[in-house]
Amino acid sequence: MPRIAWIVLSAAAALLFLGFAGAAFVIASGSGSEAAEVETTLTLGERSAQLELPLADDEEAVMLAKRRGRVLVGLAARPGGPVEVAALAGEKPVASKDLSLAVDGRSVEAVPCGRACSRLDVDAFKGARRLTVNAPDTFEFLLPEALPPSGAALFAQVQREMRSLRVHRYTEELTSGVGAGVSSTFDVRAPNRLAFRTADGFRSIIIGKNRWDFRNERWERSAFPGLRVPTYMWDGARNARLLGKTRLRGRQVQIVSVYDRDPIPAWLRLFVDPQNRVLDARMIAPSHFMRQQFSQFNGPIEIRPPK
Q1: DSSP-assigned beta bridge partners for residue 112
Q2: Integer distance in angstroms from the first to the last C-alpha of the chain?
Q3: 220, 213 contact by CB (below 8 A)
Q4: CA-based R_g, the chain, Å
Q5: Are residues 119 and 251 in the same domain?
Q6: pLDDT tens for residues 60-73?
């Protein structure tokens, strides 16, 4: 199931009604702010035109991003330069009158490089640099003195390990940057079973080509096109870089940054344990800010039809 399915599925988990279109794709069909946002900003199979970042096609580029509210600021930095900056408020580029940039405290002029894209002539990774983006809130990025090591080998190991899991659980927080967002818990069991519940009590179970939704104090059964699990929101990502180590849940983890271009541009950061399992994954994408926390790897989780 591609990343677009997970993004829409995650938002749809907040609804009292779910609709499905195509193999394992979920489209929100209810009401509410998050549902409306998904319907207007995501189209299955349609390449995003929300921003252009030409350097993202360079395998050596380092991809970094931050967000505040609905505003996203993302970077693509190539060794020796240049550096490209994308700034979006929701899905719209930050207006030029509200955007200014500085390197090491000195204002710099940028040249356009596409929709929502500004290019700076910065000699990156040849000495530490501080890049400030005012959009109009201030975002600061500290570019390290040297190019971060490639994370391609570790990312490949992570993909193999996570795809080999028979069972796992993750809790997820998803927001558009407005309001409280959606909080859900997903249980996943290979090859075709998934159950989720939202913080406000909605529940759904999918097994093969059957789906059960808990509505009006009873389970309702309906047909489902089918799905294959496990798959993850970072499937298809590239530009893997090692950003260092930290501790998470009492364990040492490596931080891996990756970037995905389709179906919407997304900066992802993975926190990987010594067994090459992702404990925490965070995504920054236009109007879609997501955090997933993983547990119960091959644990005692059963997913059965409701009684």
Answers
A1: 118
A2: 28
A3: yes
A4: 20
A5: no
A6: 999 999 999 999 99
3-state SS class at 38: helix
Containing 36, the helix (H) or strand (E) segment is helix 33-41
Strand (E) or helix (H) holding 164: helix 152-164
Residue 263's pLDDT band (boundaries 50, 70, 90)? confident
Which residue, among 104, 91, 96, 100, has the nearest Cα to 133 in the 3D structure?
100
Q: Looking at 119, 143, 167, which one is the last position of a domain?
A: 143
3-state secondary structure of 7: helix
Question: How many folded domains does the chain comprise?
Answer: 2
Q: Structure pTM? A: 0.86
Q: What angle do CA 70, 290, 100 make, to 5 degrees?
A: 35
Report the candidate in 98, 132, 131 with the shortest Cα–Cα distance to residue 116.
98
Cα separation values, 48 from 18, 70, 159, 260, 295, Å? 24, 17, 25, 11, 32
Q: How far is CA 282 from CA 36, 47, 113, 117, in A?
A: 23, 21, 27, 23
Q: Within this chain, do residues 198 and 271 fall inside the same structural domain, yes or no?
A: yes
